[in-house]
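Lab meeting prep.
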Amino acid sequence: MENAELTPTAWAILGFLSLKAQTGYEILRAAKRSMEAFWGVSNGQLYPQLRLLSELGLIRAAGEAEGPRSRQRWEITGEGRAALRSWLESISSPVQIRDENLVKLFFAGRSGPELVGRLLDERKRIFAQFESVIDAVLPGDQLPEAEQAAALGAPELLFRYGKHFTKSTMRWIDQEEERMREAFRGDRDDRPGTDDSRTPDETEGRDEGGRADQDEGGGEDRDEGERPDRDGLSGRGLDGKGGGN
């Protein structure tokens, strides 16, 4: 059977049934505690795919329906195992990420650093929530013993991947926030009137000179050495010497 004939949900169902016979409800629970964060399976997807897999001869009913809700237990067939093995050995589809927050960050640059900062804060909250989902997989909800043995440790591998992914993203956000702060400080320092390389004479002349000219001479030109003493210190001439009293 060609892999393209089955949906991602169908392959997940075959995978879970390869571990042990299960009802649709049990498959949903297993999917929730193991792969919900990256491969969701819903009721609306599950039961139609169970019927399809049965019609294709890849799974079959295992005994009669059980319990007050008449839940049917399913098991994988030999043909189903062969199809699953073929899918596992095939080339995986390229990873496709649909991330609204990243799209917003792409366009937010022209709106200024404040909006970009808010979006980075939002991304922190998103990944904190994602990490809580990963934490709920293991060790909070251990797989049954038979299922754990059949999985050969793969659930722990995915758990470690999820934790590494979230921590790496958090570090990236911290680095980008620091880069933005540095860029903002640099931009502020480059603005007119913020040059700290001015000499004391230039600073004093810019801060005080305009008001002094208006008070003393209505804006007339004045020799640097004749600047009035406002702070109890004599004005300095261009030669750097005190003007004297």
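Slide two material, second protein:
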Amino acid sequence: MDDLVTERLILHPLTPRQARRILAGTPGPEGWWAPGYPADGDLAGARRYLQVCAHDGDPQPFGAYEIRLREDGRAIGGAGFHAAPGPDGTATVGYGLIPAARGHGYATEALRALLELARTHGAARVVGDTDLDNTASQRVMAAAGMRPAGRDAHLAYYESTWPPPPAGGTGTGTGPGNESGREAGTGDGTGVASTQAG
């Protein structure tokens, strides 16, 4: 699968080999790491991706992505889906950045790209969650076009939805700004997004 390229970022789809390198803490020849990468959330994302690959095969394009800066190619975080959409067309998304990369709109930019990817590949809904006190992550999801979808004692839930595609077609939505959406989390408050918004 090709890289997703945005104005300032490259979302590089991970392969199992690259995910194992992240877990081992050894960058490969295909990329450079900014100081602080990989963070705990990146390690959790790489582990989850490898588990999905082992159980269901590589879920790309609904897999894990390394977030790189276009200006120098350095990895500054991770984003992606927990797995391919389920039978109801729902996918869960997550993201996180190293502390030095937060506050520049990178998480919002990456999340918008992933929402558009999900829409164009037929997902009906993308969901995510974040801790109630993580207002930065809540702002990221809202800025990316996701809408609040409820709260419980610990988490705020967000979602993006699109109309079902026509028979034999792909998504028909008009982009992340026109749907509702939830940010990336695991459902238990431990998702990358719930700890590393930026």
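Talking points for slide two:
Residues 25 and 147 are 35 Å apart (CA to CA).
Helices lie at 16-24, 40-56, 106-120, 135-143, 192-195.
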